[in-house]
Amino acid sequence: MHSLLRGKHFISTQEWTKEELNMVLDVARDLKRQFAIGIPHRLLQDKTLFMMFFEQSTRTRNSHEAGMTQLGGHAHDLTPDKMQISHGEAPKDTAKVLSRYGHGISIRNCFYGIGNKYIREVAEHSSIPIFNMQCDIYHPNQAMADLMTIQEKFSNEVKGKKVSVIWAYTRSYMKPLSVPQSQILLFPRFGMDVTLAFPEEFQLMPEIVEQAKENAAATGSKFTITHDMDEAFAGAHVVIPKSWGAQLTTTDEKESLALGEKYRDWICDERRMAMTAQNSIYLHALPADRGNEVTDAVIDGPHSVVFDAAENRLHITKALLALCMAGRP
Ligand code: CP
């Protein structure tokens, strides 16, 4: 299995088998244990990861950079202004050059209609593995960390659990569709019953929703869509209320935020958490818009596992990097 993953690109979980995803989770749990008890695990000694960030990041940037250090390698923190990308260098030229210098390239590019295409073009011309650190369609690393967290909190008994992926109000910024899309794709493959809740204007990409339904049908799990936030909370074991933009209606940030103004009451609060199942958990990829997406009482309260999930980003990242990059001379 290890050698099968060596050199493989990680652009979406859809392109990985369940066996491969289980291997990532298994290695992540192992590296988490080693990290906790101080066992060195320099699996990527002297190896280099190039991190290309077209947007801001706290968790993804720092989990990748810290992860590479812990694995004995080094990560370059790159932004377009530090590279000739800002002068229009073609993705294939960037891919071919970085492939000569190091062992992996990770990219965040969330520009709607552009990000995933950019990553795939780099991947096509790269001879080293490409890691999607979030694009306009997918955030597979986040979804894997969420899955790992859900498995931990429910002692691996996740089949049949109601997991609600819910739009929430924000006045902060127009968030990509990639987190909820990756979650609805991944969770049904592990037997979870997904409920997707959003106001009519905040559709996800129809082809992704279709794939999510197919994933659910393949495992016999339920996939439900509602436009009622309370319905999504009722009896849920896992709630993931988080804003995303109205990209399918408008790519203008101001217009998207204005559309959300009608839905200020789409907030995760204690009233709604009281509707969930006993021992339910609250997840959010972060950064959270406190006071709009979620109240302080919930995100700082007993259901919240947001910092456990943020920590798991480190372990999932290290597992992916080690599995795909290790062994290359
Ligand atoms: N969840 C997440 O990807 O966080 P950052 O944007 O800070 O990387």
Model description:
The protein has 13 helices and nine strands. The longest helix is centred in the C-terminal third of the chain and has 20 residues. The chain folds into two domains: 151 residues, 3-Layer(aba) Sandwich (Rossmann fold), CATH 3.40.50.1370; 170 residues, Rossmann fold (3-Layer(aba) Sandwich). The protein has 329 residues and is of the alpha/beta class. The strands form two sheets. The protein has a five-stranded parallel β-sheet. It binds phosphoric acid mono(formamide)ester (CP). The site of phosphoric acid mono(formamide)ester (CP) has 8 residues, from helix 3. The site of phosphoric acid mono(formamide)ester has 8 residues, from helix 3.
Map the helices and strands.
Blueprint (H helix, E strand, L loop, with lengths): L1 H4 L12 H19 L11 E6 L5 H12 L3 E5 L12 H11 L2 E6 L5 H11 L4 E6 L4 H14 L8 E6 L10 H9 L6 E5 L8 H14 L3 E4 L2 H5 L4 E5 L10 H8 L9 H4 L7 E2 L13 H4 L6 H20 L4
Parallel strand pairs: 1-2, 1-3, 3-4, 5-6, 5-8, 6-7, 8-9
Helix pairs in contact: 2-13, 3-13, 4-5, 6-7, 6-13, 7-8
The structure holds phosphoric acid mono(formamide)ester.
Phosphoric acid mono(formamide)ester binds next to helix 3.
